[in-house]
Specification:
Strand content: 15-25%
Low-confidence stretches: none
Mean pLDDT: 92
Distance between the termini: 23 Å
Number of strands: 13
Largest sheet: 6 strands, mixed
Structural class: alpha/beta
Shape: globular
């Protein structure tokens, strides 16, 4: 079913900000099919369903999502636009993630990242959390359609000569007041849903935000409801596509994400 970000309207939240990143075409590694499309669509959901004012939404895709541009967006743009104890910050990332060889550190790969030089060219997940935490936002919700297995959405290796990483990385603890939705767990890959032209996780995330995740029909969607919806659909579709993918949620399950008008 086609995604329709205009299907429902959420309550406006003038104190909310969103930084949305989607990288399909990478400079040095294989593509993440549809990730730019995921970001483009998510920006519409951010505005329409999450109620974030258009001027508070920044979208970086493909070559605009370089290491420098992402850092400027995180450290300068977010800081300028956010108000301590008032702002609700949303981050969406679709692209490659990678784990350090010992599995202790998780990275998100920017457009110009080089997997062989993770520390120098990729974004350390815990650093991103720290940067955002230092702004003292009221809340932080992060959606990561990335995996750390060293594989692409199409099961190829990100680096042609690499082996899949079977390490079990340590899920880094999430700061208090942070809510993190992840597309998969451990060494699973985060796949695409080719018939929808979207990442599997991103597609059901947005479908859920359209109202499909409102399991008790109270015109509200909590983080728990959204996760349950995404989890049951993604795990089922992944099996149909011949793989395993188990979305994860860390943080408060009672938090109301969307209130429909």
């Amino acid at each position: 079913k086609e995604l329709n970000p205009l299907k429902v309207k959420g309550k406006r939240n003038k104190n909310a900000l969103a930084l949305i990143i989607g990288i399909n075409n990478y400079l040095r590694v294989s593509a993440t099919p549809y990730a730019d499309n995921d970001a483009l669509f998510f920006a519409d959901y951010a505005n329409n369903v999450l109620g974030i004012p258009q001027e508070n939404i920044k979208t970086l895709s493909n070559d605009k999502a370089s290491e420098i541009e992402i850092k400027i967006a995180l450290k300068s743009w977010l800081k300028r636009y956010s108000t301590p104890n008032k702002s609700d910050i949303y981050i969406f990332f679709a692209g490659h993630g990678l784990a350090s060889t010992d599995g202790k550190e998780l990275y998100l790969l920017p457009y110009d990242g080089e997997p062989r030089l993770l520390e120098d060219t990729a974004l350390l997940r815990s650093d991103i959390f720290k940067t955002i935490k230092s702004m003292q936002p009221k809340s932080v919700i992060i959606f990561l359609d990335a995996c750390y297995s060293g594989q692409t959405r199409e099961k190829d290796m990100i680096l042609a000569d690499a082996r899949p990483i079977t390490i079990v990385y340590e899920e880094d603890s999430v700061p208090e007041d942070f809510i993190v939705f992840s597309a998969s767990s451990g060494s699973e890959l985060s796949g695409s849903l080719p018939e929808a032209d979207h990442g599997l996780f991103s597609y059901f995330l947005m479908k859920g935000l359209e109202g499909d995740a409102d399991s008790n029909n109270d015109n509200k969607i909590t983080t728990g409801e959204l996760h349950n919806y995404v989890y049951s659909n993604v795990t089922r579709q992944a099996i149909r596509l011949g793989r395993e993918q188990t979305p994860q949620l860390q943080g408060d399950e009672e938090r109301v994400l969307v209130e429909f008008n």
